[in-house]
Amino acid sequence: MAAKDRINKASEAARAAQRNRYLQRLLEDEDLRGSLVTAYGAARNAYGRMTNGKPATQALFEDKKLQRELREAADALREASSSLREPPKRRRRGGIGRSLLVLAAGGLLAIALSEGLRSKVLDLLFGAEEEFDYSSTTSPAEPAPATATAP
Description:
Blueprint: H1 2-19, H2 21-28, H3 30-50, H4 56-62, H5 64-85, H6 95-113, H7 115-126
Helix pairs in contact: 3-5, 6-7
């Protein structure tokens, strides 16, 4: 029975996690995760610098790298908390630029594959071609008469 109780508790915790909007946001928002990872890394480095043997107050006031890492951790946490408070960003999927690109690609394919359309476009760009009906003003040369030889 203990195994079933643990399974029930785990499934209940999973359902609660699915309903938690903060966890959902953490799973969906890559920028938020990046901010939290940056804050964790900076805080870890700062902790390492504080525990290097000097008194903590001396390290805080004199160590410029420690101050910079603490500031970086605070900024990353501030950014993460503000992104948690604001509504999630909607990702645009190309908008008008993508539509224009698809339209241009479709037009190029149509011109390449349709001879009639291609000739119309060329006529619009360079003017209509002049068609020549060639008629010769000279008469064709008559073949030389064949001479018959006697046997």
